[in-house]
Amino acid sequence: MAIKRLFIANRGEIALRIVRAAQTLDIETVVAVSDADRDSAAARQADRAVVLGPAQAAKSYLDPRLVVHAAKASGCDGLHPGYGFLSERAILPTLCAANGIAFVGPEPDVIDGLGDKIQARAMARAAGVPLVPGCDEVKTAADARREGDRIGYPVLLKAAAGGGGRGMVIANNGDEAEAGFHRASAEAVAAFGDGTLFMERFVPEARHVEVQLMGDGKGGVVHFGERDCSVQRRYQKLIEEAPCAAMPDHLRQQLHQSACALAASVNYRNAGTCEFLFDVKRQEFYFIEVNARIQVEHPVSEMIAGFDLVQEQLRIAGGAGLSVTQDQVKLSGHAIECRINAEDTARDFMPSPGRITRWSPPAGEGIRLDSHMSEGAMIPPYYDSMIGKLIVHAETREAAIDRLDAALADFTVEGIATTIGLHREIINHADFRANRIHTRWLEQVLLAERKGAAA
Amino acid sequence: MTHKPPVDPSVDHVRVLIEEFTRSGIATLHLRAGSFELLLSNDPAAPTLAGAPAAPAPVAVPVPVAAAAVAPAPVAAPAASPAPAAVSSSVPDGAVVITAPNLGTFYRAPKPGAAAYVEIGGKVGPDDEICLIEVMKLFTAVKAGQAGTIVAVLAEDGAMVEAGQPLFALVAD
Amino acid sequence: MIRIDDKALAAITNARALLDTMLAGGWNEVCVQGEEGDYFLARHPGTPNPLTAPPAAAVSPAAAASPPVQAPAARAVTAPHVGTVVWLAPVGTAVGEGAAVARLAVLDETVEVAAPAGGTVTGHGVKVGDLAEFKTELVTLQG
C-alpha cells in the first residue's frame, strides 16, 4: 500500500531532499528534529516536525525507540532513515515492522548480514563477486604474519566490525603485520568491543568505484551505473563523479553484473550501493562492501540517469515494484558532486560551526544544489560538517569540470569556513583534469603540495 | 593546539561569555564579583553601569546557587553544568588549568561506557590523553601537556565546551 | 583595562552555568546574590534588574527577605524526550521533590517524569493521549 504519511528520521540536506521527494508524490511529511534543529529547513518544509529530544544525537536522532514512537504517534505509515544515524541499524526496520510502519530500506536481516564485513564477503563470494585476496579472521599477531606472507605485501588490517577508516593499519612486511595487529586490534576493541581483524591485499593506488542499485525485494535488481569516489581524505569522500571515466566498458559491464548478482542473491529491497576497489594497474576490481541505504552521493547517478532515486525508494517501500527495467535506464553525460563542508582547510579541516552570514549559491543549466542552508542559518556543532552538495552535469567530463569550476567560483558563503576553495584547487589540478587520481591522491599529492607551498 | 601568544587567556573567558550571551538572545546578563562587574545588555532602556565598581552586595543570602541549578527534569538539561560554585572552588592554588583546544563535546572516556581516561587523583604524563573533544564528528584527544596529578575535573562529561574553557586542573610534579 | 582575577573567572564560569540552566529550564529571569558574587539574567528587555537598584532598597528588610532566586513561582515541568502522555498528576496534588508528576509512553515502555522540586500541581500543559515533544510543558507546579 502506498505510503500516505512519511516520517523522516534524519536531518540536514537529506531530510529536506526526502521531504521534497515525498511532496512530489503527494505524501504527507513529518520530520524528526532535535532541539537544535527545530527551525531547520526540513522542519519548515514538512507538514509537521516532532522534537525528539535534546541536541545530542544519542538522545534524539540515534534513539530508535524515540524515532519509531514519534513516527507511530504522529500517524505515519512509512519511515525514511536517510543516511548515517540509524539508517543501517537493523533495530530500526525491526521496530518499524512491529509497529506497522513501512521502512524505506532493506529487511533487517539483510542490513545485519551486509553490515558485518565477514558475512558480506561470504555473500559476495557466493554470488561470484571478485574479492581482494585476503583473510576473514585474524585473531593473533602470528596469524597476521602468516596470512600477510601468503597474501603478499603490502596488506591492510582492519576491524571486522564497524565501518569507515577507523582502526586501519597498513603493513609492508611480517614485522609490521605483527605490530599492526596489536595496534589495530586494540583500536577495534576500544571502538567496537571486538578485536577480530580482517586482512587483505593493499592496493596503493586504487580508485573507489561503486554501483547504484535498486531492488524490489524479490530478486529483481536494476542498476543506475557506477560512481567514482576517489577524491577522499581520511576515507571520507569529497568529490564523486558518474560515470567512472577511467574504467573501460568491458570492465564496467562486469562491475554492474557483479553488483546486481550480489543484490539479487539476497533479494535486496530498495536502494543500495555496492562498493568496489578498482586496481587500475591490474585492471581488476574487488568487492569492498554494500551500503544498505541511500548515499550522500546519489545525485550524480540521478543526474546521468535522469531518474529520482528517492522517489523510487518511496514507491518501492509503499509496495510497488521497480518502475523501470534495466533497458529503460539510459545513462548520459557526466556528473560531478562536491561536498561542501563547514571546515577550515587551512587549519587541518577543523570543523567550523556557526552562523552563515552570507549565502549566495550558483544556479543555471546543469547545476544542482542539495542544501538545507540559507542566509542566517545556524550550523550547530553537534552533527556532521556537510552543509550542502553542489552537483553539475554536462556532456563530457571536461565540460562538467568547467561548469563546476564556474559554479564554485560563483558560490559565496560567509560567516564560516568552507571547503569551496579547496574544491576549485582539486578540480583544476592537472592530475584531476587528466583523471590520474586515486583514493590517497588528495592527501599524498594535493594536500602535500599545499603544505609545501605554505611552508 | 595553536596558541595566540599576546592575548591574556583570561580575556577569553569574557569573550566566551559574550558569545554565549549573544547566541542565547536574552536581554540582560549582569554579574558582579569583588571588584569585577560586567553588564551585558540588549535592552536600550536599561541602566548602564556607573564608572566606579559597585559596592559589594550588601545582602548575603545562604545557598544561592543550589536553587539555581534546579532543572525541570534530569534528562531535559543535558548541558546543565554542575553547581557552578563547586566547579570554581575546586581549583586549588598552584594548579594548572587544562583548557579545551576548540569548541566541542567533552568526553572523559574513549567510548560510551568505558572507564574515564583519568580520574581525580590520577597521575598523568605529558603525552597522556586525558579526554576527547568532539566537534562535528571530529574527535581531538587532549593531552595533559605536563606530568602531574589531576586534582579537579572542571567540565561535565558530555557537555558542550567552548574553546579555552577549563577542563581539568593539574598539579605539576 | 580589564583585570580578571580568579574570583572574576569563577563568576564568569558561574554566569555561564546559570545561562545554560536558565535556557534549559525555560525561565525568564534568574537572580542570585551571594558571597561568591551577584548575578542577574533576564530573557526579556525591561525586566527590573535588582543589581542596579539603589543600595538603599537592597538593604531594606523587604529586599533582604526576598528569595535569593527569583525563579518563577510557577514552574513548568517539561518532557525530557518525545512520548505519549499516559498519566498526569491531577491538579491540586501536592508532590514532593522527585515524585512522579507525569508518565510518558515510548512504544511499550512507560517513563516517569519527576517533579524537580516539591509543590502543588496547578495546571496541565497537555492532555492524556497527546504526543508530548521534547520540552513540551506537561504540568505546572506552584512552589
From TrEMBL, chain A:
<keyword id="KW-0067">ATP-binding</keyword>
<dbReference type="Pfam" id="PF00289">
    <property type="entry name" value="Biotin_carb_N"/>
</dbReference>
<comment type="function">
    <text>This protein is a component of the acetyl coenzyme A carboxylase complex; first, biotin carboxylase catalyzes the carboxylation of the carrier protein and then the transcarboxylase transfers the carboxyl group to form malonyl-CoA.</text>
</comment>
<keyword id="KW-0547">Nucleotide-binding</keyword>
<dbReference type="InterPro" id="IPR005481">
    <property type="entry name" value="BC-like_N"/>
</dbReference>
<dbReference type="InterPro" id="IPR051602">
    <property type="entry name" value="ACC_Biotin_Carboxylase"/>
</dbReference>
<dbReference type="InterPro" id="IPR011054">
    <property type="entry name" value="Rudment_hybrid_motif"/>
</dbReference>
<dbReference type="GO" id="GO:0046872">
    <property type="term" value="F:metal ion binding"/>
</dbReference>
<dbReference type="InterPro" id="IPR005482">
    <property type="entry name" value="Biotin_COase_C"/>
</dbReference>
<dbReference type="GO" id="GO:0004075">
    <property type="term" value="F:biotin carboxylase activity"/>
</dbReference>
<dbReference type="GO" id="GO:0005524">
    <property type="term" value="F:ATP binding"/>
</dbReference>
<keyword id="KW-0436">Ligase</keyword>
<dbReference type="Pfam" id="PF02786">
    <property type="entry name" value="CPSase_L_D2"/>
</dbReference>
<dbReference type="Pfam" id="PF02785">
    <property type="entry name" value="Biotin_carb_C"/>
</dbReference>
<feature type="domain" description="ATP-grasp">
    <location>
        <begin position="121"/>
        <end position="318"/>
    </location>
</feature>
From TrEMBL, chain B:
<dbReference type="InterPro" id="IPR011053">
    <property type="entry name" value="Single_hybrid_motif"/>
</dbReference>
<dbReference type="GO" id="GO:0006633">
    <property type="term" value="P:fatty acid biosynthetic process"/>
</dbReference>
<keyword id="KW-0092">Biotin</keyword>
<keyword id="KW-0443">Lipid metabolism</keyword>
<keyword id="KW-0275">Fatty acid biosynthesis</keyword>
<dbReference type="GO" id="GO:0009317">
    <property type="term" value="C:acetyl-CoA carboxylase complex"/>
</dbReference>
<protein>
    <recommendedName>
        <fullName>Biotin carboxyl carrier protein of acetyl-CoA carboxylase</fullName>
    </recommendedName>
</protein>
<comment type="function">
    <text>This protein is a component of the acetyl coenzyme A carboxylase complex; first, biotin carboxylase catalyzes the carboxylation of the carrier protein and then the transcarboxylase transfers the carboxyl group to form malonyl-CoA.</text>
</comment>
<dbReference type="InterPro" id="IPR000089">
    <property type="entry name" value="Biotin_lipoyl"/>
</dbReference>
<comment type="pathway">
    <text>Lipid metabolism; fatty acid biosynthesis.</text>
</comment>
<feature type="domain" description="Lipoyl-binding">
    <location>
        <begin position="95"/>
        <end position="171"/>
    </location>
</feature>
<dbReference type="InterPro" id="IPR001882">
    <property type="entry name" value="Biotin_BS"/>
</dbReference>
<keyword id="KW-0276">Fatty acid metabolism</keyword>
<dbReference type="InterPro" id="IPR001249">
    <property type="entry name" value="AcCoA_biotinCC"/>
</dbReference>
<keyword id="KW-0444">Lipid biosynthesis</keyword>
From TrEMBL, chain C:
<dbReference type="InterPro" id="IPR011053">
    <property type="entry name" value="Single_hybrid_motif"/>
</dbReference>
<protein>
    <recommendedName>
        <fullName>Acetyl-CoA carboxylase biotin carboxyl carrier protein subunit</fullName>
    </recommendedName>
</protein>
